[in-house]
Request: fold
Amino acid sequence: MSEILQVVPLDIGDGAYDPRSTYVEQYWLPVLGPTATWLLRRIADNFDRAPSGFELDLAETAKALGLAQRGKVQGACQRLVVFSIARQQDLVLAVRRAVPALPRRYAHRLPTKLAVAHLSRKDADG
Reply:
C-alpha cells in the first residue's frame, strides 16, 4: 500500500534560490544530504507543472530516486522540516518554492573551503 502526501507551496517570502540552483547544490546539499536535496529538486519540478500543489506517492518517489524503500523518502521529508525548508502536518507537506541563504549556524556542516566561501558571501545571514 502506497502512502500519498499532498504537497503544497510554502511561500514565506524569504527564499532567494531555486532548489535546482548551483547555490543549493553547493551549500545546502552538505546540510540536507543527497536524498533530501534530490527530493526538493523533484518537488520544484512538480511545482512548475502544478503550482498550487500535487500528490506525492512515497513508494513511487523512492523508486524514482533510486531508493530501496519509501521510508527513506519520509526521512528526506523530515530533514526538509528540520532545516525549515518544509512544514508537515499529517499527510500534508508544505514546501518552500525558493530556498533561503544557508543560515550561518549551519556553516560548520560544510567542508572548510565551502564554509569560508559561504561566510564571505553578502547574503549569508547572521
